[in-house]
């Protein structure tokens, strides 16, 4: 059994090999295809020799030098048919790029341990650093079979060389290698010197790529081994590390040349991770060189492919650097394709490796030319423009602005030393790269600032105008405004971004104060209704989370406060409200909130007390505090107030509903008379009567629920019978009581202070609608719109700002948005009214005096007020029913014309009224005869029909 098995095993390689004839004149014979390889066969092998001249075949057995080793074997035979002795060199290289592979490539090692001939002496091993070389001697007419013990199953190449021809081949390649290494070394040294001189980031990246190529070629040509005398395994590790560094430096060059760090911060993070991984691969080469080399080769191909996509994408976006890099990258891709075909064995010519090495040097040469073209383009222009900046230096010093300059190519930021002095930083601390400079910016401003300068560099146009915060040495932040523009070089690229920095901390603080005023009452400084609701919502959420903590809301309204304004004046009324706010604030504990909800109404949020008895005691203290007389000069003011209390019970209710409960309780207290306190009861909501309490409560939410609507009544031009404009009238679409006229809720709105919000709403909507009509209905005489103004609006200091904001947000013809005011309103404070109206007129708004003839009708004051229109009350129009001459109306029209004003007559309800008004000289008329108040859409259709009739 054992004997049969041994015969079976030995029968595999027992067949005789064919002898290869060796002519005298042959320089080299490729034995690879004629050699039989037995990989991992065992520690011995039995083979049949090639037939000799007489046809005899013998059987030989060869044992491995190391007993028990599973060795690989190679068998070939040579024949000398000549009459002379032949000496030949058997050569197999340690490493050959051709056919080495991509994943876990063959990085080379010792190939042949020993060679055993079938006759004669063993071939002598010749000294060679990069190949296994044996001297073989063939006697005349001899046929010799050779059995070679291999170090590994791979035998990349096996050739039989004529000694002189092999020597000439080595000499030729040595000369070629020296030339290639010399050019690569000069390129690396040249790019390094340029980096020292120019200082641009692109040069060290290109220089690192050149040095990596030089190191790779030195290892591939064997110069590295000759210097350091490394063992074969060490040679593999160094070769794998060199390939990893070649891929890493190519990635560095691509990212720095295309400035990928300025395009996307995530791209920069990805590149950083990739570079760290390649450096780690170079370290792994010490332990597993084939794996490291495989990763490096795959990375090199991936960089080439991704680089092509980036270059194409950026080139289509007009990025000139990407366009300049196209020839270089095409050569790189061609070299990568050739290297792939050689590594996989598709190209196996002896000149393939030499051509690839030369192509690598040509690639570095093209990189050098590309970098030089980019780096030196536009330098003269950049330096020429600097002189212009120098000429502006004195102007900058006089203005107090600070210079900010970013050299894009060098990635260096320069700022005036005065900025570092103001921030308490050492001199030169801010003169660094953009990345280092960003560290001084506030964290919330960094991404916005970086995105702005990246966009300017990418687009090569535009201006930077941005505010950001800079951190001082003591940790405080100061606001600065940067205004800069890009400077382009001759190649069209941005070479620098230069501008000025201005300290805008004071204006920013003013903006913050404005934001504070937006949620606080202008008079008392207390939180307004919006902020009060926000804090109430927070208290409700906290109550739901913590359980026992309950929020208590009190709504307080001063009794008969309007009489204080009427009796003592608005100035004293404001002082009363301010004193009241201070008194109430002293009664509250930290965490509680006092707010002015509007007019003479205050809101109190109690979160410091949960005991109902203590809350009731606090309400009583508030009531007594309000009853305490207030002294102003020689006057004393006695006040009372009604107080409504609502406690949040933990149910799923909105903040507005809790406040509404307190207000309902307060209105219920007012029904019982002044100086009364009521706690909310659900039964208070069931009342369906339309009384003052429910109206006032609903009115506070009418604007939020979009229940306030505008209707427009036409005003006709009497000479053409065409619509000249509209009067904007306010209506309230109440959810229970239907549409309410102003007479039913305006008084309540004035008493509660809601008239200010309603008036601003009407003004804004009327201006928006007027602008839309004027844009759509082009005519020689543009349409106008009139809006009524209440006393609270006129006497507010914010009226000017409100009108300015409305006119800025809406495009209307100057003078066509008219504010209607009554005589009695103007005469409450004539001097102040005159000044306010003059400022309103200067803003571009028109002014109409409404209900003329029913009030003071003071001609002296009428001449002082800058009205452009007088609206005659309907009583002067309708008093003539039988054709009597309206003497008063005629006098009013003549007076208005003498003062340069137009006249609008109200109450025209018949055609006779219109004809008579026209005969008296009235330009405009308004009444039910010309149209009832209608919606904006109905008014638009009416205008369209009129326009079609005209054309």
Automatic annotation (TrEMBL):
<dbReference type="InterPro" id="IPR011623">
    <property type="entry name" value="7TMR_DISM_rcpt_extracell_dom1"/>
</dbReference>
<dbReference type="Pfam" id="PF07695">
    <property type="entry name" value="7TMR-DISM_7TM"/>
</dbReference>
<dbReference type="Pfam" id="PF00990">
    <property type="entry name" value="GGDEF"/>
</dbReference>
<dbReference type="InterPro" id="IPR001633">
    <property type="entry name" value="EAL_dom"/>
</dbReference>
<feature type="transmembrane region" description="Helical">
    <location>
        <begin position="354"/>
        <end position="372"/>
    </location>
</feature>
<feature type="transmembrane region" description="Helical">
    <location>
        <begin position="240"/>
        <end position="260"/>
    </location>
</feature>
<feature type="transmembrane region" description="Helical">
    <location>
        <begin position="209"/>
        <end position="228"/>
    </location>
</feature>
<feature type="domain" description="PAC">
    <location>
        <begin position="464"/>
        <end position="516"/>
    </location>
</feature>
<keyword id="KW-0812">Transmembrane</keyword>
<dbReference type="Pfam" id="PF00563">
    <property type="entry name" value="EAL"/>
</dbReference>
<dbReference type="InterPro" id="IPR000014">
    <property type="entry name" value="PAS"/>
</dbReference>
<dbReference type="InterPro" id="IPR029787">
    <property type="entry name" value="Nucleotide_cyclase"/>
</dbReference>
<feature type="transmembrane region" description="Helical">
    <location>
        <begin position="175"/>
        <end position="197"/>
    </location>
</feature>
<dbReference type="InterPro" id="IPR000160">
    <property type="entry name" value="GGDEF_dom"/>
</dbReference>
<feature type="domain" description="EAL">
    <location>
        <begin position="692"/>
        <end position="947"/>
    </location>
</feature>
<keyword id="KW-0472">Membrane</keyword>
<dbReference type="InterPro" id="IPR035965">
    <property type="entry name" value="PAS-like_dom_sf"/>
</dbReference>
<dbReference type="InterPro" id="IPR043128">
    <property type="entry name" value="Rev_trsase/Diguanyl_cyclase"/>
</dbReference>
<dbReference type="InterPro" id="IPR001610">
    <property type="entry name" value="PAC"/>
</dbReference>
<dbReference type="InterPro" id="IPR052155">
    <property type="entry name" value="Biofilm_reg_signaling"/>
</dbReference>
<feature type="transmembrane region" description="Helical">
    <location>
        <begin position="293"/>
        <end position="316"/>
    </location>
</feature>
<dbReference type="InterPro" id="IPR013655">
    <property type="entry name" value="PAS_fold_3"/>
</dbReference>
<dbReference type="Pfam" id="PF08447">
    <property type="entry name" value="PAS_3"/>
</dbReference>
<feature type="domain" description="GGDEF">
    <location>
        <begin position="549"/>
        <end position="682"/>
    </location>
</feature>
<protein>
    <submittedName>
        <fullName>Diguanylate cyclase/phosphodiesterase (GGDEF &amp; EAL domains) with PAS/PAC sensor(S)</fullName>
    </submittedName>
</protein>
<dbReference type="InterPro" id="IPR035919">
    <property type="entry name" value="EAL_sf"/>
</dbReference>
<keyword id="KW-1133">Transmembrane helix</keyword>
<dbReference type="InterPro" id="IPR000700">
    <property type="entry name" value="PAS-assoc_C"/>
</dbReference>
<feature type="transmembrane region" description="Helical">
    <location>
        <begin position="323"/>
        <end position="342"/>
    </location>
</feature>
<feature type="transmembrane region" description="Helical">
    <location>
        <begin position="267"/>
        <end position="287"/>
    </location>
</feature>
């Amino acid at each position: 059994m054992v004997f049969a098995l041994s015969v079976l095993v030995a029968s595999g390689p027992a067949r005789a090999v064919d002898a290869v004839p060796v002519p005298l004149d042959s320089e080299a014979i490729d034995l690879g295809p004629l050699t039989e390889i037995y990989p991992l066969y065992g520690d011995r092998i039995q083979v049949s020799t090639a037939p000799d001249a007489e046809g005899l075949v013998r059987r030989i057995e060869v044992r491995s030098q190391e007993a028990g080793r599973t060795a690989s074997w190679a068998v070939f035979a040579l024949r000398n048919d000549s009459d002379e002795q032949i000496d030949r060199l058997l050569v197999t290289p340690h490493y050959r790029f051709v056919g080495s592979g991509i994943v876990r490539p063959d990085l080379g090692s010792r190939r042949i341990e020993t060679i055993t001939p079938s006759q004669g002496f063993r071939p002598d091993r010749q000294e060679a650093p990069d190949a296994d070389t044996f001297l073989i001697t063939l006697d005349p007419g001899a046929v010799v079979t050779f059995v070679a013990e291999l170090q590994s199953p791979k035998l990349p190449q096996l050739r039989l060389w004529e000694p002189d021809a092999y020597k000439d081949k080595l000499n030729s390649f040595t000369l070629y290698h020296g030339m290639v290494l010399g050019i690569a070394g000069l390129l690396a040294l040249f790019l390094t010197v340029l980096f020292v001189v120019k200082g641009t980031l692109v040069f060290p990246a290109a220089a690192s790529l050149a040095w990596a190529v030089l190191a790779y070629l030195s290892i591939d040509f064997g110069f590295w081994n000759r210097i350091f005398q490394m063992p074969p395994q060490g040679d593999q590790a160094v070769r794998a590390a060199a390939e990893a560094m070649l891929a890493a430096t190519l990635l560095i060059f691509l990212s720095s040349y295309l400035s990928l760090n300025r395009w996307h911060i995530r791209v920069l993070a990805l590149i950083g991770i990739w570079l760290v991984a390649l450096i780690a691969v170079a370290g792994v080469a010490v332990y597993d060189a084939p794996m490291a080399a495989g990763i490096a080769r795959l990375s090199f191909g991936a960089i080439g492919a991704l680089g092509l996509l980036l270059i194409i994408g950026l080139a289509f976006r007009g990025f000139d650097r990407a366009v300049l890099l196209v020839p270089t990258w095409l050569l790189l891709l061609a070299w990568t394709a050739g290297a792939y075909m050689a590594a996989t064995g598709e190209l196996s010519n002896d000149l393939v490796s030499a051509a690839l090495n030369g192509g690598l040097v040509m690639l570095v040469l093209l990189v050098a030319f590309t970098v030089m073209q980019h780096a030196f383009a536009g330098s003269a222009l950049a330096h020429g423009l600097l002189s212009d900046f120098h000429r502006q230096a004195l102007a900058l010093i006089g203005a107090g602005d600070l210079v900010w300059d970013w050299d894009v190519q060098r990635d260096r930021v320069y700022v005036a030393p005065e900025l570092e002095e103001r921030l308490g930083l050492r001199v030169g601390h801010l003169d660094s790269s953009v990345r280092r400079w960003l560290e001084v910016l506030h964290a919330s401003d960094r991404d916005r600032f970086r995105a702005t300068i990246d966009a300017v560099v990418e687009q090569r146009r535009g201006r930077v105008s941005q505010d950001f915060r800079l951190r001082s040495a003591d940790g405080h932040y100061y606001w600065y405004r940067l205004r800069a523009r890009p400077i382009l070089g001759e190649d069209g690229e941005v070479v620098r971004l230069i501008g000025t920095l201005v300290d805008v901390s004071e204006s920013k603080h003013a903006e913050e104060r404005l934001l504070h005023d937006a949620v606080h009452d202008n008079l008392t400084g207390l939180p307004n209704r919006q902020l009060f609701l926000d804090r109430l919502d927070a208290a409700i959420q906290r109550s739901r989370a913590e359980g026992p903590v309950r929020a208590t809301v009190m709504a307080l309204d001063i009794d008969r406060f309007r009489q204080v304004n009427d009796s003592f004046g608005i100035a004293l009324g404001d002082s009363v409200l301010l004193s009241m706010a201070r008194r109430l604030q002293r009664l509250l504990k930290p965490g509680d909130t006092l707010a002015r909800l509007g007019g003479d109404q205050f809101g109190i949020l109690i979160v410091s007390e949960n005991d109902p008895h203590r809350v009731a005691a606090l309400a009583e203290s508030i009531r007594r505090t309000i009853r305490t007389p207030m002294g102003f000069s020689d006057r004393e003011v006695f006040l009372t107030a009604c107080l409504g209390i609502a406690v949040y019970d933990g149910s799923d209710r909105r903040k507005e509903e809790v406040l509404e409960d307190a207000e309902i309780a307060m209105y219920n207290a007012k029904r019982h008379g002044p100086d009364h306190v009521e706690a909310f009861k659900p039964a208070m909501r069931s009342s369906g009567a339309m009384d003052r309490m429910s109206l006032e409560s609903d009115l506070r939410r009418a604007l939020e629920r979009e229940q306030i609507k505008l209707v427009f009544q036409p005003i006709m031009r009497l000479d053409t019978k065409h619509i000249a404009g509209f009067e904007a009238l306010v209506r309230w679409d109440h959810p229970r009581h239907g549409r309410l006229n102003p007479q039913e809720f305006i008084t309540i709105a004035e008493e509660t202070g809601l008239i200010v919000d309603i008036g601003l709403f009407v003004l804004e909507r009327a201006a928006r609608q007027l602008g839309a009509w004027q844009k759509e209905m082009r005519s020689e005489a543009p349409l106008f719109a009139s809006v009524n103004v209440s006393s609270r609006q006129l006497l507010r200091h914010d009226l000017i700002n409100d009108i300015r904001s409305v006119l800025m947000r809406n495009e209307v013809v100057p003078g066509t948005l008219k504010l209607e005011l009554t005589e009695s309103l103007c005469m409450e404070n004539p001097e102040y009214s005159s000044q306010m109206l003059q400022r309103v007129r200067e803003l571009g708004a028109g002014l109409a005096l409404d209900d003329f003839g029913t009030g003071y009708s003071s001609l002296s004051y009428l001449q002082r007020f800058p009205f452009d229109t007088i609206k005659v009350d309907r009583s002067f129009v309708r008093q003539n029913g039988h054709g009597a001459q309206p003497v008063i109306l005629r006098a009013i029209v003549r007076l208005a014309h003498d003062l340069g004003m137009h006249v609008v007559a109200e109450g025209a309800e018949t055609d006779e009224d219109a004809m008579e008004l026209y005969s008296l000289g009235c330009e405009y008329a308004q009444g039910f005869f010309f149209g009832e108040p209608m919606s904006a859409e109905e008014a638009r259709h009416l205008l369209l029909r009129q326009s079609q009739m005209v054309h």
